[in-house]
## 1
Amino acid sequence: MALLHRADLTPSKLELLNAWLPTRSWYTGPAEPDLAKVGAFRLDDPAGAVGVETMLVRAGDGPVLQVPLTYRDAPLAGAERWLIGTTEHSVLGTRWVYDAAGDPVYAAALATIILTGAGQAVEEFEVDGVRQARANELQATGSGRAGAAVPAVTGVLRVADTDPTLIATDSLNLTVIRVLTDDPAVPDGAPTLTATWPGSVTARLLACAG
């Protein structure tokens, strides 16, 4: 479950990404994009300390891009390379926003949803002390099975910041597709994460493990 806040962010997530995306080798859009949000979903951090969100964005009529993010209340030691920027949250204060490829909390959450066949986190707001679920038209689902063993991920060892992005952790390897296409290459038999959203004709591959 992801508890969200009705809050203002300065700068906004899209403003941060407008500046950051053109610095990525796998981005081929305009130098000054005006990104639109296609959809987003959350993953659970069991400790409840780190926000984990995957955003799907598009520049004009370009392809849909996958940008996983983590939100922290303090800098992540040794992760300066993955810092996208900071934003002021009107409820939580300063938040450090990271490209989640370099964050072990994201790697652990991604491995869990892929290998256990789970869905994304339920998103809730608290209004006058009452929790209210927020509907999400984007649905992300892992291909694994309920109750499957998930290797513990405690560190990210290497990241190939390409498309696809390859994340080597201390227990398994993960692949994250950045530019979403209709027919990405998937290793035979690899457990996957796919998603659908309004306007998508078929489920799109987001990530795989193995």
## 2
Amino acid sequence: MKTIVVRMLLVLVAAATLAGCGFQLRGSNGQYNMPFKSIYLAFGETSPLGTELKRNLRAGDSVRIENDASKAEALFDVLGESRGKAILSLNSLGRVREYALSYTLVFRVRDANNKVLLAPTEITLRRNIAFDESQVLAKESEEALLYRDMQTDLVQQILRRLAAIKPV
């Protein structure tokens, strides 16, 4: 009985210490402090990556997404976006056993005066996927899920890099 009380007290002290020092998991509240109040995103209208990035930026109340580049404090330029699929390994019969999927985004961020806030940055994500000829439809669905997962990861990396920009 006494050990349970001591353990509970230790847990309570540890929790209070962590809360008191300001410890917080990275992105645990899903919001980042952006160094600008408005941003223009140069993605195509139907870009899934652009849509998810807009949704994440709107989730935090501090940044406004502008449709007109001249009204924005920051301009997010997409210099390149590509998805790739390469053979990673073959079985003994020369058939594909694994693919390597990749998702690459190259972007930069400028301010309203065309001054570069974030130099051209390339983010490349890779995932491996096993392939089985007898389960082609399932593997196509798995591939789509992996690309969606990479897209979500890419958006989080972009948000962290945007939040790390030092205003000039």
## 3
Amino acid sequence: MDAHSSEFQRLIGVQGEDFQHKLDLVVEGQQMLGERMDRMEAELKAEIRKVDQRVTAVAADLAAHRADTEAHHGVYRVKEG
């Protein structure tokens, strides 16, 4: 009976170690995924800032062009609609 009990205890220990190893792998994968998502979020924010700067520059160019066009009443006309 003691032989069976010690063998059972050993098997339980092996199963516990195997489970802990697999759990450690899952945790490590989750940490890596979280880090990757953080990097992607930072990259997306940087791209959004670039696009916002471009849109602002185009809007400024358009406003300047419109002001220039409206300054030349006899030659150019801005028509809405």
## 4
Amino acid sequence: MTARMNNPLAVLSEGMPAVGILNKAALSAGVPESTLGLVHLRASQINGCGPCADSGARMAKRKGETDERLFAVATWRETPYFTDAERAALALAESATRLADRADAVPDEVWDEAAKHFNERELAAIVLWIATTNFFNRLNVTTRQQAPQNWS
């Protein structure tokens, strides 16, 4: 499969500063970057975004994430590698990514569990991170962007 076009943000580069501002805001809230990385990876897996899943796993690995955890993100419920806070963030990421899967897209129990582990500012950052990840996933999947063949 080949890309249909360049990434839309490469074509309309004026949009990149806005994305940078969103990322900076999310990163400033105090949520561990490892948690945001897991959220990004899980949403990207759900959406079938090869470039985001690939780069997300590679970036997490560079920042010290373990193979066991990276390999198990898709099965986080059935593995012992994640904290309760990470599990709450992953559940929120799945619900917020799969909006059309149920009438109550993000059920109270998912939100309430996340709220046990994160304050309002941190929850805002996680929701913003999920939304930004989904934004990139949709750009990449729609235009058939590919993960790079060779990483240096």
